[in-house]
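hiii so my PI (J.) wants the whole complex modelled not just the main chain, which honestly fair. so below is everything: two entries, each one labled with what it is. i double checked the lines twice but i was tired so who knows lol
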Amino acid sequence: MKSEQSIEERLWEYIDGIAPANEIPVIEKLLADDEDWKNAYSELMDVHQSLQSSELEQPSLRFTKNVMDKIAVYNIMPAAKKYINKNIIWAIGSFFIILIAGLLIYGFAQVDWSSTGKSKFPFDSGEIDLSKTFNSTYLYIFMMANVVLGLMFFDRLLRRKKMSYNKD
Amino acid sequence: MSTGLNDKEIISRVLRGEQHHFAELVNRYQEYVFTLTLRFIKNRQDAEEVAQDIFIKAYRSLNDFKGLSKFSTWLYTIVHNTCITFLRKKEQVVHSLDNENIFATVNNQASGFDANQLEQKSRVYMAVKAIALLSTDDAEIITLFYKAEQSIEEISRILGIEISAVKVRLHRARIRLKEKMEKYFKQEVKDLDY
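here's the output for the full assembly
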């Protein structure tokens, strides 16, 4: 069974014209001498020729007209790369970098650098009053304003983009 | 009416705004696209709708065709993806048509052969019927290779799989096709042999 599969596999490659060059004379010799190979080749050639001769399916006669009627209302979209605007990516990236930088600056500004202790760090972690930082109304306002501004900016860009495609 | 332009020339004209040239591409590939679509979607009406959508998608995305492959290879990638999306949406079962009921259904499908033509009992007819009995994956790869004139490398690009995987899948599909032909058309084959 396995050898039969191997024969078929090699024969299909030979018929498809993708058999390795060194294999071709070997197969040709087997086809000339070996009855099993001859029979298998004849069977596979029947299938091969039938598949090649089979006809394509025909759609309705109005097919092209239907497609052309439908595309009449469309315009060709810009290439995928073109509509992924780099400015948008930069704007989103900058927004988050500014947000993180702002938080870090604000956080470090709250640290009392003058205090000395046994800590290896330049500040004593025990002395950082997180509740003071994160309860700050100013911080909440700052974060909220950033988020709202970011979302508004993003929404504006998307709307503009959508409108330009609809116009197209 | 053919203008004698090749695919790339037609595309560049369409991209310049001469929309009517797209009709030539539709004429050239409609049968290939429809045949491939029918391998996924057995209902002819649905298949025709989907085939039309495929051309509309191709038209709208024409700027994305960079000419690195044949236009047909690019188009058949759209066929493959659109049909899979359609089947997912419809939650249609991608089935192996391995039972008598479905065999009967296949006979009823208007796939270019009516009752009178059944008399012909040709090997071509059997091959067409046997393809309809295959699973979607097998039927697709056989159609791409034999009817859509795609090489192994191009099929690998369309299906998004390795070349070696295409070879294996094609080989297995042909084995199953041969089995179907032997199983369902044994008598016809005998008749042809005598």
